[in-house]
Amino acid sequence: MTGIKFRIALICGRDLAAADKTGFSDPYGVIRVNEKKYTTQYIKQTLNPDWDFHFDISVSPSRAPKHIAVTLWDKDKFGRDFMGELMIPFRNVFDRNQGDSFGGLPMNYNDPANQPSWFSLNKRSEKDNVKGQVMMKFGFVEDVIRSPTEYARYWDEITR
Predict the structure, then answer these.
(1) How far out from the chain centre does Cα 110 lie?
(2) Ranges for the C2 domain (predicted)?
């Protein structure tokens, strides 16, 4: 396998902090991979947004990101409020895959065993009002589902 597409999905959030006086937020996510930025739509008046957002990147041994950075914001008429962040080392994106009986092996995005995982949001400073989690899913995007051994070998090559 040379270059291959890899999908990153920010599916939803739960139990997020209320950033507005209404007791809700208008949350959206910003995902940074290498020098690129991907932004979800904002969802009005909720603490449990469903973004169902995904994008594909091309990965190879010479073009693999070091990490995936996710930041949540509350959209306001004049600006935005910080709602939390997380940083996932690219090598570890499959570590929490609850559907993987092999213990975190890389998988095709559409493999039924490849299940999304919850990640807790972190503060930048003690004064930040941050709580909740986001659900994410990762995987290779191909027309075929390869064997776990093939994906593991390729994953090792691109994340060295």
Answers:
(1) 16
(2) 1-103
